[in-house]
Specification:
single chain, mainly beta, 4-stranded antiparallel sheet, 1 helix, elongated
Length: 153
């Protein structure tokens, strides 16, 4: 029985540090901007100085977007958002990978996921509907959905 208790104590500190609790595409039509947004839940304590690196597939083609951010030990939830993206297509898989590193750069955990939008970015206006801190109407709104001419098929 004592051996079983000792094994249980040893295993409590092993395994994943975080898990994915949410993943969505955010379409903010007011500012004509779309982003990836992921939420991670902490499963066990993280070392001081840990860094999360997320790599997001670029829907428009080209180099992926990479975001590095420090993860504070007291955080229970971690959110990571991509820079603005263009050309999101509905029902298409987009790859996202994350690496959790200790302060010295040692990889503590990797996570690979795919994300699928149920909305096509063509529903977005090509220019913001509002401008400024008071959300004034944009005098040069443009029209909706003109991204298709610059997006891959």
């Amino acid at each position: 029985m004592l051996a079983g208790l000792l094994c249980a104590c040893r295993d409590a500190g092993e395994g994943d540090y975080v898990n994915v609790t949410g993943r969505i595409f955010v379409f903010n039509y007011r500012i004509a901007q779309a982003t990836y947004l992921l939420t991670l839940g902490k499963l066990r304590p993280l070392p001081d100085g840990a860094v999360l690196e997320a790599t997001f597939e670029n829907p428009a083609g080209g180099a992926p977007f990479v975001v590095r951010q420090k993860v504070w030990p007291m955080m229970e939830k971690i959110t990571v958002e991509s820079p603005p993206i263009k050309c999101v297509k509905a029902d298409r898989e987009y790859k996202v990978s994350m690496r959790l590193e200790d302060p010295g750069g040692k990889i503590l955990q990797t996570i690979e996921r795919t994300m699928i939008s149920d909305v096509d970015q063509s529903v977005m206006p090509d220019k913001p509907l509002v401008v400024g801190p008071f959300y004034d109407a944009n005098p040069d709104k443009g029209s909706g959905g003109n991204l298709s001419a610059t997006c891959p098929a």
